[in-house]
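Q: Entry one of two.
A:
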Amino acid sequence: MMRTSIARRLVQLALVPAALLGVLVVAAPAQAAAPTTVRLQSDIVAWTNAVRKSAGCAPVRLDAKLALAARSHSAWMARYGKFSHTGSGGSTFVVRVKRAGYVAPLSENIAWGYRDGRQVVTAWMKSPGHRANLLNCRAKAVGVGAVYAANGTTYFTQEFGSR
């Protein structure tokens, strides 16, 4: 009798939507083969520092506040399917970075649709404005956000700071 009751409760629990329980939801098939966002973010920082080194710039250190601003903007772009440096409520990267608690915003790079960190940094290096941000030797810190949209498209934001 007790086993039946426990089994019934487990079945009922399985029917409760995962979001209500705060459980991590399994990736959709389109995302299943994609790298994790943590891996993407780490790879972008590594590739960023590699191109900076080749240009004679010091590496940038990862900053949690810049990363928070970057992830928030990527999440906003992914949620609404927008690709823009102008964010929620018309915000600029300076506003978003300062809102996250970082006092010296420098620049921002955004991208979407790439599969790995190398592709993202390579694309940025082909864009004069993004390349200038990557190779600005005044940059001391970086934060990266990579977020998957519901359709599997990845949105990327990279925030640079001068402290």
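Q: Entry two of two.
A:
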Amino acid sequence: MYLNALAALFFCLTLGVPATAASETPDTRKISGELMVLERMALPDDTVLLVDLTDAQDNSIASHREGTDGRQSPFAFSLPAPTDELLILRAGLRGSDDAFWLSEPVAIGEGDEDVSLGTLRALRIPFMGFASLLSCDNQYFELGFRPDEVRLRLNEQIITMLAEPAASGALFVSADNPSTSVHLKDTSAILRIDGAELSECALIRPQDDITQGVWTISSIQGAPTLFPSRTELVFYPDGRISASIGCNRMVGSFRRHGGVLTFGRVASTLMACPEGLDEQERRFASVLDVIDGYRLDPESGRLSLLAGGETILQARK
């Protein structure tokens, strides 16, 4: 029930160039800061800086993608944002071999003035599936569902919790610390951390949900998919994906944090495919390696998967 209710409605301003190059209008302000990785390591040359703004309902408002080209942290960022609503910012890095670092959600209040966030800390985090915001008295955390557990991200920790019987709703309890739990009832939640209760919490559920239904892939890297081959992509709320690009079946995983979307490794059956379909499957697998965001148009029903702000795969329900 709770897994299938997670959703994302996008009217995105997705920027493929540094947001500092964009001109602001009277109705926008500048949000800036820098992102620092705490790990003592050299980041790969192909690491991409990801900055994403959503509204209080976790609908994407603006995003910024920028190749780091071998530079090391901290990484400065700046992007325009609306003035008349509460915003949530996440900043992260995506590297090769599923390396992924992300800051905790930062709330930015309404106002006309530019906002400097200073230095944000990014920590490597595991796959959390379709991560949703958990709002508790103006504090924002993330809750993600996995096949056999949920993962809560707060205070630079990832807390893994397992389902336990409950008289109503869904109860998840930390296997390492039974005094830490989250109890979900529809959109409300009770969060306990080391026995301290954070009440009046709400699980924020955007309107549209990529995990609802089957997506028919219509183009990959601008090329229409072959007809009459059957092309399907399915997102499951627990972070799994399945796909068929006309011949073999593929399975893998994804993570979603606001407007950030990335994929893990994909496994495939090994059937011999008709001419053209094998190349189409290879192109599909290759674009999954670089996707870093998505846009969902509720009016047309079109899903666009993005890399660096550019659409590289399109699908419809």
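A: Comment on entry two: The first strand starts at residue 13 and ends at 15. The two ends are 21 Å apart (CA to CA).
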